[in-house]
Task: structure prediction
Amino acid sequence: MQTPQFSIKRKLTLMMMGISLTAVLLTVFAITSYQIYDMRISKMQELDITAAVTGDRNSAALTFLDAEHAHSNLEIFRLNPSIFAACIYDAQGALFAAYESTQPGAHIACPKTTDETKKHFPGMLTSFQPIRQQEQVIGTTFLVANTNDIQAYIAKIIQIAGTSALAVMGMALLMTVYFQRLISGPILELAETARKITQKRDFTLAARVINDDETGSLAKAFNDMLGEVRSRDQELMYANETLEHKVLLRTRQLEEAKRIAEAASEAKSEFLRNISHEFRTPLHAMISFASYGIKEIETADRAEQQRYFQIILNSSERLARLVNEVLDVARFEQGEHHFSLRRSDMSELLARSTEMVRALLQEKNIEITFEQLAEDVTVTCDQDRIVQVITNLLGNAIKFAPRNSRINIRSGLLSQEGENSIFVSFIDQGVGIPEFEKEVIFEPFRQSSHTKTGAGGTGLGLAICRGIIRAHGGQIWAENNDSGIGANVTFTIPCKLPEGQHSIHTNTLEAQHETAA
Result:
């Protein structure tokens, strides 16, 4: 059988009314029981005194055997309706005189002997007292009284108890209505708040703390729980946003890596196309003029044969130069290279390199100007490698500069973070470099989109230059001129480098440069 479910208000009402009713009933029962007991004792004492007085008044009649006088004395009990029977017995226990009430329903006959007085009289009070004269028992008085006054008292008590119970129940109901607002009101309001939060999914709501008691503690605990839920929601929302950001960032990184990989693949493909062309041209010249020389060895004059050999030599040197460039890139990618460092005058290295490209300058009628901003531009370096860098950078400037233009070579002293370096800048009047390609052009197999068509090249020269400069502890970079015409490629070399033979790990240096950047 399922237990009926009541609301907190109903439970509080039933509980308080039940407690109040129980308290009233227990109190009335205790007081009534005591009063009944006390009244019964008092009644018994009164009956015993009445029996003793009655025996004393009738002792003379009993002595002189005057039964009529004794009967007359007993008639006084007609004035006391609570006495139903009064009996006097002689010394032998025989009935001597008797009084019997004539009230309706109150007729009780006196027993014939004292032995019969021991029988039970239900609902009655009895008293059996001896009659003495000079310490001698001459007879016995026996009285029988009703308990109507006790029963009337009980009825009155029950009436009063019922009235009191109703009054207490009414007061308990009023007090329950008042106190249940203090107890069930906050709980019901908390339940309503929880229902709204569940329906609206709005965890910004909070329970109102009404009282500073257990219900208030419950509301505070509920609000603390909501705070934890809000905190968890915010953390989850932040985690979702962070996850979306990480996914987006990772996607961009993957796209960038894909783009770089595709660009590297395209650069290598273009490098292979360029290098095949660069290799094929001198090889074709060498094969062609060697074949001509063999065929015309008997007919060609010495001047013609010398021209064939010179072309073959030039093509061989060009081919060897290409092979050396590829080998240089391979060495730098492997991470170790050997340098012979000694004190050198940068102005002399610039002059030597300029003479090596003099023919190219004259071919395009390009003017070279030198601008030395410091008196002493001495630096410790590998002369051959730095000449290779200068020649390469100067060759690029010549290659991409228009005819009848000018290239300015500027050198001087540069102080960075307390360390002095020698810098050299090559400023041309060519097509310039796109902003997003200023770093890309120093990677192997990469050429600027402004210069890779029409000018030729393998895309290895600047990569080799960067490897050599970084191996010296310097930096190299490219930028466009402020005038908007031409580019400016600059490299720096620290002034204080130890002289002698050195084996330098270029990969480590490159990692350090990337970290510094």
